[in-house]
Amino acid sequence: MGRGDRAIAGIKIYLGDLSHTSVSIASDIFPLNIGFVSTYARKIFRDEVDIRLFKYPDDLISALKEETPHILGLSNYPWCSALSEAILKFGKESRRPAPVTVWGGSGYPANEKDQDTYLKKRPFVDFYVHLEGEISFSKLIERFMNCGGDIQKMKQSPILGCHFYSAESRLLVRGGLPDRIKNLDEIPSPYLSGALDAFFDGRLTPMIQSNRGCPFTCSFCHEGADYFNKVHIFSPERIKEELAYIGERMRDSLVKTLQVADSNFAMYPQDFEICRTIRQVREKTGWPTNISVTTGKNKHERIVEAIETIGSGITMSMSVQSMDENVLKNIRRSNIKLDTYMKIHDDLKSRGRHSYAEVILGLPGESRESYLRGMKALIHTGVKNIRMHTLMMLDGTELNSPASRARYGMKGKFRIIPRDFGTYHGIQAIEIEEVCTETNTLRFEDYLYLRGFHLMAACYYNDDYFVELLEYLTQKEISPFDWLTEMYSQIDHSAPSGLRQTLADFIKATKEEVWDSPEEINAFYQKPENYRKLTNGESGGNLLFNTCGKIFVYAFEDFLDYGISTALKLLAAKYSTEEDRAMCRAELADIRTFIWHKLSNLFEIASQLERREVEFQYDILGWKEERHARPLEDYHRPGGSAVRYLFSHTETQQTILKNAIRRYGSSPIGLGIILSRVVTVREFFRNALRIAGPAEDAAAAPLVASGLMGSSPSA
Fold it and tell me: CA 360 to CA 435: how far, in whole Å?
């Protein structure tokens, strides 16, 4: 049947990649995925289709109540699965005539038996678009047109790339997979076509994609499947046009981040041109100041050069997931050698650049001991930030197969995805993820212990909060890892009571946030008094970062002093003479004061306007500027020649901080969101500037005496 013979023309289509908005915008990224699907369909069907895109659930539900589309298509990812499911059900059961309902995305099993069960439980889903969606969704539109919108006729034969239940056979019908699009420029740009213009609303972060696919085969990742093994690209010329288009519209926005969706950015030659364009757009428009991206897993020399091309605002990722060879074998992954990591870090450090590593707790074969060995090895490389994740048991991944679960004794528990819940026009949805909390080499008690270690590392090691102390300990040949483990092991004995309680509360909440089934979670939060715990922030947030937020708001002084006192304890064991100990006390007193003025009351609006003038006996800035090339003692300023620093925020920092606090609030929950989302938190730190003239009394809080090195001097 030709296009002119179709029974329906001008069909109305609603597409949504939704985000919860109850606490904040949980997924504050442009809906680029449905943008691709819509522009490809418009290319084929032109004015025969009328497509609207949605990000916010209230907008979509209101539109459904005003007018029912012919086709309602929503994406299925961890951040929106339950929400999309609830709205598909609402559309199917309450709208007349009911739309054809379509679902697509990675939240779908790979196993055929599990696919059958998955769709059988969801009779309100008419069609599932499997894997890449542009061609498959367009084939579904074509079938809709050819069948006059009659769902039963649409299901009489397979549709390329689509899964559905046959009304006659009651069997799951799977259309064969279309070939992946090799020349991605065949998909018209959602930006340049104007399809995403409505999302330049000052709330969302633009996202670009320069390639699709991944050459690696990691078993915990969707792109580890053979289907995604070939990498296909969008042309650099197209990406340059998109970035220029976005930059002009983001010029005055308070959202300063660009999200890059590539799995291995900067690993390919064409990425250099994209990096140059990002820099040019920034120089012209002032946007973006931050780039959120996962860089490639090899060709690191090329990646370092690409990062250098962009300039500030981008960090190199060293995603190792585990440092244990047996674990890496189990997940079909290989890492570069440790000495290579160290060379990369040294190169980045010499250029004033930063890097971060990613590790996953709960991988098969990992034990408490091997995990900590891996953390020690990473810290030894000098990597600036370690992002610590818990293994998600994702649908469609090899690691979530029945065979892998049985082989490695993997046991999962369920928890709410942070901030991914809400009620919209009476429709309640809670996003739930399954995480691996136990294997045949990791007990649940080990999981809890390591989560506590995650908290210590997140607050003490990451993001340069304590970088001056870390560099000092390293110069004294004391491993920052040993410092962390000493604090963690002795926290019940040596830490201030408030800090002890904070850790105890965190471990308790870590245990209580996981459930045996999604049904238990949904049943519990159906009760209004329990649901209020989500909306008021008692539960349902990012536990790790919320606790970090609490520490910054309520316990920063205790936290700082516990780190200093533990450092004093380790130095006391290293140095036996009172002269050496006295020098360490004096040096740490200045370091403590420096960190205090860099970070204290960081997220209070009034404090951002403060200009703090402080006197030091050691020229810490000079030490930092020379990249700690000499011991801090060489920078001592003898009596009468103390150095003075002015601590303050720039106007740009004040604007960024105020905007972040305006968007998310300054409560521990709000700070948790800021700390988990901001690419470079260190850019929020107060700047220290060397000055001349009399110093004012800045009332720095005193250094807590450890009792190990004699009396501690006042800061």
Answer: 11
Six-digit token pair at 669? 């929950």
The b-or-e profile of 127-164 (16+ CB within 10 A means b, else e) is bbbbbbbbbbbbbbbbbbbbbebeeeebbeebbbbbbb
Whole-number Å distance between alpha carbons of 274 and 265: 10
CB atoms within 10 A of CB 566: 25
Query: How many CB atoms are closer than 10 A to CB 613?
Result: 18
Which spans in 161-270 are helix H?
A: 236-250
Query: What 3-state class would DSSP assign to 670?
Result: helix
pLDDT by 10-residue block (mean), the chain, 715 residues: 48 97 90 98 96 98 96 96 97 93 94 90 95 96 96 94 86 93 97 98 95 83 79 94 98 91 86 93 94 78 81 76 92 75 70 80 97 94 89 91 94 94 95 97 98 96 93 96 97 92 95 96 95 87 88 89 97 94 97 95 77 94 93 89 92 81 72 68 86 49 37 30
Contacts of residue 9, Cβ cutoff 8 Å, sequence gap at least 6: 48, 145
**Which of helix, strand or coil describes residue 55?**
coil
Name the CA dihedral angle for 30, 32, 37, 39, rounded to a multiple of 10 degrees: 90
What single string gives the DSSP state of each residue in 549-597? HHHHHHSHHHHHHHHHHHHHHHHHHH--SHHHHHHHHHHHHHHHHHHHH
Burial of 492 per CB tally in 10 Å (0-12, 13-18, 19+): exposed
- Look at residue 115 and give its three-state secondary structure: helix
Question: Is the full-model pTM beyond 0.85?
Answer: yes
Rounded Cα distance, 134 and 209, in Å: 15
Beta carbons within 10 angstroms of residue 605's beta carbon: 13
- φ, ψ of residue 357 in degrees (nearest 5): -115, 155
* Cα gap 526→125, rounded to integer Å: 24
Q: Measure Cα distances from 276 to 106, 306, 583, 616 in Å.
A: 32, 8, 48, 41
**Cβ neighbours around 337 below 10 Å, total:** 8
CB 649 within 8 A of CB 606: no
Dig out the tokens for 226 from the structure: 């053979």
CB atoms within 10 A of CB 464: 18
Hunting for tokens 């009396």 — which residue is that? 711
What phi and psi, each to the nearest 5 degrees, are found at residue 178?
Answer: -70, 160
CA distance 471 to 595: 13
